[in-house]
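Quick check before the chapter quiz. The format below is the same one you will see on the exam, so make sure you can read both the input and the output lines.
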Amino acid sequence: MIHLSRYGVDFKIDMQHDPELEHFWRNIYNTWESDTYESILPHLSKDKIFIDIGAWQGPISLIAQKYSKQCICFEPDPIAYEILVKNIKLNEFTNIIAINAAVSSERELYIGNDVLGNGCSSYLKSENFIKCSTISFSELLTQFHLNETNISVIKIDIEGYECKLLQDPVLKNINVCKHISLHSNFFTNKEEYFNNLKIFFGSDYLFSDNKFESIFINKI
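Here is the expected output.
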């Protein structure tokens, strides 16, 4: 177990005797994705819900819970989900809901990776494919009684699947803040990837081909 503190939150992480995981939390996490936190945190509200799509082991939601009424986390990778649940219980954070599912309009979705649980499981990976449960964005809103008035931010970090999820018209049209991580590096045909994103962002949006890029959309 490791004790950490970031952005005003003290919390603990369950290590599970994983050297790579321990290295991340001890040596990388302190400066990891600072731009993501700095984009998301100012828009959270104690009166609203934060939605974490692709929650991994909880690095964003373990912080966001302090500044939110509730965090609803979706993580389809069963290994990452198991650790996420352990981290929530370890810290006794009662306002985080973790769901072992992908947000997708597809009823059959497979994800894989050479090592499940390490944060890079993707529908594009060719190793260790597993079928995961799915919930559509529309179903998500209905199940948790959510709408534009009670959501603060939707965070999407789903290892390439964003090019499909962002085509969902319900997600596109809901007028709330969104933080979206892009993964063009996963794709051989980057032109096709960016063209799919333009359905969401619009044809005039200029994309970067950086290895990792995130986009924050403040609600209009």
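If your answer matched, good. The radius of gyration is 17 Å.
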